[in-house]
Amino acid sequence: IGPYEYGDSVYWIPGYRYPHPSVPIPSDGATDISLEYGIAWNYPYKKDYTNVTATVTISGPGVSRTETFQYPNNVLFETFEPGGTYNWSVSVDGVNGGTWTFTVDNKIYPLNDRSVDTTANSRLPAHLYKDLVVSNNRLAFQRFDIPSSVNRSYRINLNLVPEKVHSLNSGVILYKYDYKGWNESIGSKNIGLLDKTLLTPIDTLMSITEDSLISIDMSNSIEPNGESSFALGTSIQGDSLSFYSSETVLETSKSSKMLELPYLPNKNVWPSLSFTQDSLSVSYDVSLSCLLYTSPSPRDRG
Fold first, then answer.
1. How far apart are CA 219 and CA 153, in angstroms?
2. Which of 26, 57, 171, 198 could make a disulfide contact with 178, Cβ separation 3.0–4.6 Å?
3. What number of CA atoms fall less than 13 Å from residue 273's CA on the CB side?
4. 3 state SS for 63-128
């Protein structure tokens, strides 16, 4: 068993092969699927796969496709809309595997996030840290890649969860970082080597409480798709706090006699960008048999 090839058009799925297409990936009924995803399936068993083809149909918000694949190709790549539910099916030589469904997440997580000493100019090692420290000369950088399916009809919120507040006598400044392509690899774009002064203040976060979600409307501060980076910094010397990073996992008890849990990401506290569409909300109250209408606030109107 070896690593799967990222982006490959053939995805090996072990196990029994049924007389019909099977083993949908994502599984039928799956939720929180990434906005950019490669759906895959297993071909039915045949003694000879010469000239065997699969017809894949997928439909849902913003997507209506029918594609034909030659065996052994079994991956269809697509970009989906936030929160959308999609139905898809696969037929091989006229035999259909049924209709499968999945629901897409309405958020994305950082490609990179790292706490950096801005007074240093050296390559940062590729360590994993469960927190993003913000204090004095340390800034917390985050890089996101917003899929093309997110347009200006979406409200974009940056979501952060403070881990520890050691000292905070003022606010935390949220910056836009104007350098594309930075990362934590060993190459020339390692965040430790780059110019970290390309910062534009866009907001100040106040009233910060440990383990309490902070959600900031970024719709007017970033482009609706493409790469965007941010940084968090203290406004006065002596303030010190930390935020959860995208390496935060669920903690397990070392004293437990049960087997320890494997790596389980705690995405509830990870930094994220979430996407929601503003619309008129209409609800029906059966008990009162009346229609309740809620108009968006003036700020929400296009």
1. 10
2. 198
3. 29
4. EEEEEEEECCCCEEEEECCCCCEEEEEEEECCEEEEEEEEEECCEECCCEEEEEECCCCCCCCCCC
Tokens of 18: 């049924």
Q: Residue 105's CB: how many other CB atoms inside 10 A?
A: 20
Q: 107: Cβ–Cβ under 8 A, 6 or more apart, which residues?
A: 82, 159, 272, 273, 274, 275
Distance of CA 120 to the CA centre of its chain: 30
Tokens of 202: 């866009």
Cα distances (Å, whole numbers) of residue 233 to 136, 166, 289: 8, 14, 52
The answer to whether residues 224 and 146 touch, using CB atoms and an 8 Å cutoff, is yes
DSSP string covering the chain, please?
--PPPTT-S-----S---SS-EEEESPTTEEEE-SEEEEEEEPPP-S--TT-EEEEEEEETTEEEEEEEETT--EEEEE--TT-EEEEEEEETTEEEEEEEEEE-SEE--SEEEEEETT--SPPP----SEEEEETTEEEEEEEEE-TT--TTEEEEEEE-EEEEEE-SS-EEEEEE--TT-BSSSSTTBTTTS----EEEEEEE-S--TT--EEEE-TTTS-SSEEEEEEEEESSTT-EEEEE-TT-B----TT-SSPPP---B-TTSS-EEEEEE---EEEEETTTTEEEEEPPPGGG--
112 token code pair:
């990179």
Per-residue tokens: 195? 């110019």
Do you know the residue count of the chain? 302
Q: Splitting the chain (302 residues) into consecutive groups of 10 residues, what average pLDDT does each group show?
A: 70 94 98 96 97 98 98 97 98 96 97 95 88 96 96 95 96 96 94 95 96 96 89 96 94 53 83 83 33 34 31
The two three-digit tokens of residue 270, written as one number: 């990870």
